Amino acid sequence: MFEKLLRKVYVPRESWWKDWIKIDEKEARIRKFAGKEDWYVLPFSSCSGIASKNRRQEYWRPAANLRAIAREKPLAGFFIALDPGHLGGKYSKMEGRHFVIGEAAAVKEGDLALLVAKRLSKRLRGLGAKVSLVRTRKKPVTKDTPKTLRKDAEAWQKRIEGDAVPTQTKKERKKMVRRRGEILFFRSSEIMARALKVNEKLKPDLVVCIHLNAAPWPTPEKNSLVERNDYHVLTNGAYLGGEIALDNQRLEMLVKLLNRSHKDELSLAECMAQSFKRATGLPAFNYKGPNAVKVGEVAGVWGRNLMANRLYECPVVFLEPYVANSKQVFARIQAGDYEGVKEVGGKSCVSLVEEYVDAVIAGLVAHAASHAN
Ligand SMILES: [Zn+2]
After folding, report:
1. Helix extents (H) in the chain
2. Gap from CA of 58 to ligand 1 centroid (Å)
3. 240, 291 Cβ separation under 8 angstroms
4. Distance from residue 95's CA to the centre of ligand 1 (Å)
5. Ligand 1 centroid, distance to 289 Cα (angstroms)
6. Cα 299 to middle of ligand 1, angstroms
7. In this structure, are residues 294 and 255 in contact, taking their beta carbons and an 8 Å threshold?
8. Could you read off the pLDDT of 50-68 as tens digits, one per residue?
9. pLDDT category of residue 223 using cuts at 50, 70 and 90
10. 3-state SS class at 257
11. Is the pLDDT of residue 301 over 70?
């Protein structure tokens, strides 16, 4: 089981893990620190009774146990955390999740994700689930700001410069350090604060991360929309060689592998992919590079190593439906959130937010129902 998960999900290339993890019939040995011959020995248990006795108690409960206690309502007993991606609001430009076409209103992924999460939380409670939002406003969870992280940004800049003679002007360098402070704020610090909230405070049974995908812009002016439109769903997996070589990521990968969150992650991701396919009629997106691994049998379900799906210990899926800068989706975003159906771009449809919410609910109910026995 350990080896199967390692090879199929977490580190698909043997050359990437063989210097860090050694496996024989009885045990796995894991290098504790880069450059040191200090190994953690993880004995395998051939007897499942012993294995379950030695298992760490996780804060989340697998779907198989939860469905058994759900009675009248399909999601009773499930504690679901919804994580609206990014920050939105006044941060959307800084985090690069913002675009404007002509005179139209700006598209901010963080704001759309929050709108979906708020609508979802109401509907899911109606189905018996307990629901928490990891982010409830267009504001960060972290208390840090780009300013408080200035020292770390400066250290990062120095690490990159090394002993090389600086080629940029003082002004350019200052600008660069400021940008590094921003990245440390909205990426590292914010995700770590959310992970702390999920693992230490909320302790949900699963997390649904709400995003909208975007395609690379065809022109540098970022003003012409694309035709491509699709969906995909992510589980944690596909650690690259350089990532498994980092002591912290190697440990975090092992936490995910050993707590068996992949089983529920895959079930949930497959149910979500199927429900998004039905709700949107879109094709599934396929990765081509080594940064993603195909997991399971359902189209559109991939493993990727993202900071949030690595740090949240419980099962977590990333939803990446819709290409926000496609002609079709842009028109639907501009049409706003409305009741009932409307004609948008020659097609009669419910609002994008409503369609997103419906698909997530269908996915969650199918995931719960598939564990009915
Ligand atoms: Zn996103």
Report:
1. 2-5, 14-17, 48-54, 63-69, 109-126, 150-161, 170-183, 190-196, 241-244, 247-258, 261-280, 307-311, 327-334, 352-369
2. 28
3. yes
4. 10
5. 19
6. 20
7. no
8. 666 667 789 999 888 887 7
9. confident
10. helix
11. yes
Cα-to-centroid distance, 111 and ligand 1 (Å):
11
Distance CA 229, CA 277 (A): 12
Helix, strand, coil content of the chain in percent (nearest 5)? 45, 15, 40
Element (H, E) at 351: none
Q: State the distance from the centre of ligand 1 to the C-alpha of 3, rounded, in angstroms.
A: 31
φ, ψ of residue 47 in degrees (nearest 5): -95, 115
Q: How far is the CA of 214 from the centre of ligand 1 (A)?
A: 8
**47 pLDDT more than 60:** no
How many Å lie between the centroid of ligand 1 and the Cα of residue 369? 28
CA of 22 to the centre of ligand 1 (A): 36
What's the mean per-residue pLDDT of the chain?
A: 93
DSSP-derived letter for residue 326 is B
Expressed in angstroms and rounded, the spacing between residue 84 Cα and the centre of ligand 1 is 9
What is the distance in A from the centroid of ligand 1 to the CA of 211? 4
pLDDT in tens, 29-44: 999 999 999 999 998 8
Express as a percent the part of the chain with pLDDT over 70.
96
Please give the structure tokens belonging to residue 288: 């081509």
Question: How far is ligand 1, taken at its centre, from the CA of residue 121, in Å?
Answer: 19
Token pair of 326 as six digits: 């496609």
- As its CATH architecture, domain 57-139+205-369 has 3-Layer(aba) Sandwich (3.40)
What tokens does 278 get?
């039905």
Tokens 């419910």 identify what position?
A: 350
pLDDT tens profile 325-348:
999 999 999 999 999 999 998 889
Going from N- to C-terminal start, the domains of the chain cover 57-139+205-369, 142-189
DSSP 8-state assignment for residue 34: T
Structure tokens at 223: 């003003």
